[in-house]
Amino acid sequence: MAGAGTLREALRALLPPTKEELTLQLGETVERSVVRLLREAVELFCGGRGDECLQASEAILDYSWEKLNTGPWRDVHRDWRRVYAFGCLLKAVCLCEETGDAGAVAAALRVCDMGLLMGAAILGDILTKVAAVLQAHLPSGKRPAPGPAQEQPHEKKARHDHVRIPDVRSERTVPRLRCPSLQHFRKHFLVPGRPVILEGVADQWPCMKKWSLEYIQDVAGCRTVPVEVGSRYTDEEWSQTLMTVNEFISKYIRDEPRDVGYLAQHQLFDQIPELKRDISIPDYCCLGDGDEEEITINAWFGPQGTVSPLHQDPQQNFLAQVTGRKYIRLYSPQESEALYPHDTHLLHNTSQVDVENPDLEKFPKFAEAPFLSCILCPGEILFIPVKYWHYVRALDLSFSVSFWWS
Amino acid sequence: MAEERRGSWFGFGFCGFGQALGSGRGRQVHSPEPLQTPGEDADVCRVSASWSYTAFVTRGGRLELSGSAGCAAGGCRDAWASEALLVVLRAGPGRGAGTELQAWAPGSALSGEPLWAHTVGPEAEGEDAPGGEPQAGALPLLPGARAYVSPRPPFYSPLAPELRARRLELGAEHALLLDEAGQVFSWGQGRHGQLGHGTLEAELEPRPLEALQGVPMAEVAAGGWHSVCVSETGDIYIWGWNESGQLALPSRSLAEVGKTAAGEASGPKEDGSDVRTAEGESGGLAPFIAIQPFPALLDLPPGTDAVKASCGSRHTAVVTRTGELYTWGWGKYGQLGHEDTSSLDRPRRVEYFVDKRLQSFLFSTDQSNQNVNCPGRKKNQYIFLKG
């Protein structure tokens, strides 16, 4: 196990060498008093006054956290997120300056993850690097041994008494194509906005062979991620919480889970770059207007039974299936009226109808709305055109990767 | 340590910028301390605290700023402190000259020119209390109740005259208004239930709280993301975000800290979560409440009547008719005054004041944010009370 000394050296090596460079360039949004406190915290840090630096960092974190929770998330000024990340950086480094024991390192890693989740990139994406160093210094005892069930995830027996596998033969299915050319895809699917399943595109990605529960726990087990708890996000009991990947797997995937937990819509590959090497960005994304950096890649990891209620997204989507199968139903934007979207601002992109158990008295038009469906299997990519309504239910333990592009 | 006198002010909570006029030692004051009042003309009638500095206004019109913005100035009737802006109501030179509303950068020491200024019409002078004393403490509501100030653009917002506003309070992203008839209105962002209309939707214009119609309110107070009002009969109604127990309702994060060693209470932004059930320690189901979107009646110990409420960003305090102080909510910086740094999700009496009678009090908070047409003002942890 690496000693505290090497950890401290490794962390210091990541930090800018001078006090002057350990600063943020901030605009007018951040008040002078905060700038002053940031400066003071750096002084304390460079002066070796770790305890006082921790105090100042806490105040910085608490103050900026309140800013992050004011107004819609998209309107939160990036500078506040950078201030928050900076506070996380100082706190994480101070936490393991004194001791390199596993508890301190795990706590510091959690702080880094908070900075990655809620903050914005600072000092050349330093938090990602600090997190990687901390992760490497966690004694292997911190990573729990793989559970007694060693089988491949897709062979796992169903935990619930009933797995309703829809009979898709009676439904209109999404067409499938094997490695279409860019032009063909654009002309027949992208431009007219038609869904299609692409075969032979993702099936050779390293993730298809590598991603087992054991591997995920090895690479990401001690990292903190957001988890959605509850059957679907339209439920009253639905909530979001934070936990490590290990905790998520043990609570919501192994061990007879009591509730449904879903590691959903999380940019895991920004947080843990090592995992990003196991996937690729589909070439067809180059047909869009945006840059590659603007593509949002999300991980969707959960047990059998997770449901995403019928909803639409404002961007094109490639949904790549890695592990397990998903039942997916698609409705054209032209059918929106028959899907009865919520009239609240928060849920205006979500249908009120429970797709597999619709209340046809309340939502009569839904019965006649035409749709396409499929069971998406490992190695396949589903193209969901922009604003196309989609409903997703996991038939097995499932890992999907989505690419949102424009 | 200053002597305690009748009519003294006390403070406790975060003072990382040395803004306590009391002992001011260290970054946090966990138990109430008497404030050293400035100089001879020491009758402080208004205190407005922001996160990094505090503004004190004396009856003689003297304004003192402590903490990160230390300075002093004269001719002030009222002051309202936020991190972005210090708003001051200054008396004109002589009667009939009107009152001027000035906004200053907090670090400017009130020298040079204000960032902006607005003359408040002389008809507002008539709003003075009987006896001719200028009414302090109404900011951000302006004299005449035709408008209010905010630390972000638009700095000056008109109010419909038919609202007949008596008091106005700003949260981080919402506003509360109490009218002459005791009706409460709210507007702004509602994602944390702070508007009290039963939904999470935003409101562009002041909307009356239907749930409270028929119960005349005497006081309102706004926290960062929660709202409180006190009825004329001494009952407390509370709604909004309960992430640190600031509504005195069971809070999941407090329960988790009690069970686990490490307590990282912050989490991602919550959207729309309402009641979550979880097992209480005895094994029974205890409903945790993250968001309370419509007013709930609060239970204080039997026989206690509230007369005044005030809120920090994530905590709440209430003074009773018998001069007692109860606090609850976020306590990490000692802002609850219970000599520790625990957060609480139920009201607890501040023992320091048991043998003193509190007359009025005030919390200070800072920060503001703007959304729609509603400016917000929020936060902070320092509380001042007058014994």
UniProtKB/TrEMBL annotation, chain A:
Q: Which reaction does it catalyse?
A: L-arginyl-[protein] + 2-oxoglutarate + O2 = (3R)-3-hydroxy-L-arginyl-[protein] + succinate + CO2
Q: Which GO terms describe its cellular component?
A: nucleus
The record's PROSITE patterns line, in alphabetical order, gives: JMJC
Leader sequence residues: none
Q: From its record, what is one biological process in GO terms?
A: rhythmic process
Q: Which EC numbers does the record give?
A: 1.14.11.73
Q: What class of enzyme is it?
A: oxidoreductase
What is its cofactor?
Fe(2+)
- Which Pfam family is one of this chain's hits? ARM_KDM8_N
Q: Where in the cell is it found?
A: Nucleus
What is a GO molecular function of this protein?
A: peptidyl-arginine 3-dioxygenase activity
**Which InterPro entries does this chain map to?**
ARM_KDM8_N (IPR056520), Cupin_8 (IPR041667), JmjC_dom (IPR003347)
Residue ranges constituting the JmjC domain according to the UniProt record = 261-406
- Annotated keywords: Biological rhythms, Cell cycle, Chromatin regulator, Dioxygenase, Iron, Metal-binding, Nucleus, Oxidoreductase, Transcription, Transcription regulation
Supply the Gene3D superfamilies for this chain. Cupin (2.60.120.650)
Q: Where is this region: Disordered?
A: 141-161
Assembly and binders: Can form homodimers (via JmjC domain). Found in a complex with RCCD1. Interacts (via N-terminus) with RCCD1 (via N-terminus); this interaction stimulates H3K36me3 and H3K36me2 demethylation. Interacts (via JmjC domain) with H3C1. Interacts with FBXL3 and PSMD2. Interacts with CRY1 in a FBXL3-dependent manner.
State the protein's name. Bifunctional peptidase and arginyl-hydroxylase JMJD5
TrEMBL record, chain B:
Question: Annotated region Disordered: where?
Answer: 259-280
| InterPro entries for this protein | RCC1/BLIP-II, RCC1_domain-containing, Reg_chr_condens
Pfam families from the UniProt entry: RCC1 (PF00415)
Which SUPFAM superfamilies would you find in this protein's record?
RCC1/BLIP-II (SSF50985)
RCC repeat extents: 182-233, 234-322, 323-350
Ranges of Basic and acidic residues composition bias in the record? 267-279
**What's this protein's name?**
RCC1 domain-containing protein 1 isoform X2
